[in-house]
Amino acid sequence: MHVTEPRRLVAELATTLAGRVDSLAAAMSELTYENIEFYRTMVVRPEDLHASMRHNVNYIVEHLADPHSSSVDLSGPTETGRKRALQNAPLPEVLRAYRLSFRYFWEQLLDEARSVGGDAPEALLDAASHVWELADVYSSAFTDAYREALSERMVETDRRRSALVAELIEGPSLSSDTVWEVARMLDFPFQGTFLVVTAEGATAGDPPLPGLDARLRALDAGSAWRAQPGSETGVLSCPQRQPVERILDTVRAVATSRVGVSPVYDRLDQTGRALRYAQVALESLPPGAAAVRQLDDTPLTELVMNNLETTQRAVNRILGGVLSLPEDDRTTLLATAQAWLEAHGSAAEAGRALYCHQNTVRYRMHRLEEFLRGPLDDPKVVAELSMALDAVGTFPTLLERRHIPEASSVGF
Predict the structure, then answer these.
(1) pLDDT over 70, % of the chain
(2) How many Cα atoms are found within 13 Å in the side-chain-facing hemisphere of 93?
(3) Of 101, 254, 269, 281, most Cβ neighbours within 10 A?
């Protein structure tokens, strides 16, 4: 390789600086502390910063001091990039430190050239583009290593948090000590305000709740997720100062598929039970819907959840005749029965709630009575009706015709 005179002169200048690597690194470190507040937080220790500066300066000097060198050793910025990513150092601030240090290094080269005199200053100016190109190459290597390490760390963090969520949803088999430790690692309280959210995968590769994490962070709500084929399940830690309804509105705003939400619970060791509520809430939504449903924690809900098939049979035995009616008739009779029960059997009160005359309510209730297992003055019949209406109100899919047996099997 032919060596030009300017390149040879620059090599001599760099060789002179080689004996001052320690003092150059110290000056760069001091310059960084003076101008960049982040470094004064001591996340990056002084000895760590000085070692990094010395490492990088040494490689630059060695490259410039060898006029035959055509390659650049990037191990220095690569090592520093990975280290700063693991230290959670902000990328813009570290790149700013790089720019300050390179400018200082250039000024030292220029001072040395002026001290030498002759053709040295002009030779250095001719080589300026190469020196600053070197700065860009170093910055790019640092940035690439930083982002790669950050990406690896994020993947590892997601895997770890996913494993912790998996532990939580195992439920009662976990000891209190284990749940306390899981809470600590997730940065969750052991006691607080929690929700379990389970979302059906709408399209392969697409998240069912896009952008939710960022929205939750804006509300100061914590979350940890477990991705599985076809679904994602998350545990949400809701801040006391935010109404839970606002968290739910946030989930609704991004839902692209069926999403089930548990009742609010206050201890992380109840996560397994809460997950079951969320799963049933999702399953109770119509297939293909983009909707969010939350179940209430009531004795009936728990009873139905534990044996949905038995509940379906019970509903069909109690309301089978009504469910076989045309949809408009069925909806009218069920809405009237619900209003009548909420009005404690008062046709007048139910009529006011339904915006119709009390005689209309009485007529509808007499018609409904024809399909029931006895008269409405029988407390057992009223109790059965109330249970069936609560069940279909909680699980609307119980009204689907696929759950209704043939008329011959109803027994009316």
Answers:
(1) 89
(2) 18
(3) 281
